[in-house]
Amino acid sequence: MDEAKRRLGLQAEAGELGGTLTSDEASTFGGLWIVHTPQYAVKVAFTGNGETVLEGYDMSEALADAIDVVAVDTTLEALLTAQSDARSAVASAGIVAESGVMVRENMVSVFTLDKAALERALDSTGAVLPTKSRVKEVSALSAPTHDSELHGGEHITRCTSGFAVKNSSGTQGITTAGHCDEVQRRSGTTLTHVEEWDGGSYDLQWHTGPSNKTIRNLVYDGTNHRYINSGRARRNQSEGDYVCKYGMTTGYDCGEIESTRYEITGRGNTWVLVRNVDGDDSDLAEGGDSGGPFFDGNVALGILTHGVDETKAIYMPFDLIEDKGLSLDTD
Q1: What is the structure's pLDDT at 239?
Q2: Most buried of 49, 174, 266, 287, CB within 10 angstroms?
């Protein structure tokens, strides 16, 4: 238990470091990720002089001891450009595909249902994928998962509630996924739809509750109700982070972040892809889970929006909720 707490504490600090390096060291920074086996380590990639760069940053002794500097040939900034170029090439070929920047592999993965068909289409149009990309054939692409108190992790009609929020006027409400029905009920009571955003990088809506229900900054995790005290932006989340979620269909489960820059076709590369690591092939997302909370302890990470091959899930990161003028309601 003590080791688990230590790792979760380092995970948050490592995420802050990764976000800072992304902004301040773009010319050499290749990404940051966490590995749990054979021993815990925070991998920090640079195209050169990584140890020297890190000397200029304050960090805890525990994080410094866990860091392993890795040499790569391509910066994170260049990988994002490669992802954009891959998107353009695939679009010109008329093939539906998704992609993710995989920093631990220093590569962009392009996911498609038919690799041979994509390659033929690229040949016929003369479009070329970037050298820092590779095509992976998958059995399915992402798909939306819709099928006294009000808080996150509750069954609302055919979706799951996410987090308690408030707007700049102090109006309290609860979030869910934007692709869910506008009319949502909880225990037979209709919630009041306020606003929704379902397009591009956003899959979000929020509702206020009736006067006889109190909005609480809690999420249900299948066993307990945990307080949510803060949120963590995508730039401070890392590949390898251990994250958990709750959905009304699949319940509570956890996994590792596989990519913090996953691209859903036509909707940008701001999504976070999570894979099951329990070895039991349990589903991370099914119909009805949409809108449910992803969290790290008492920290909000995002709301579940899509499932991929059942053993993977996608969430919209928390900072995109803030983009729409909403903040966590921690009162």
Answers
A1: 97
A2: 174
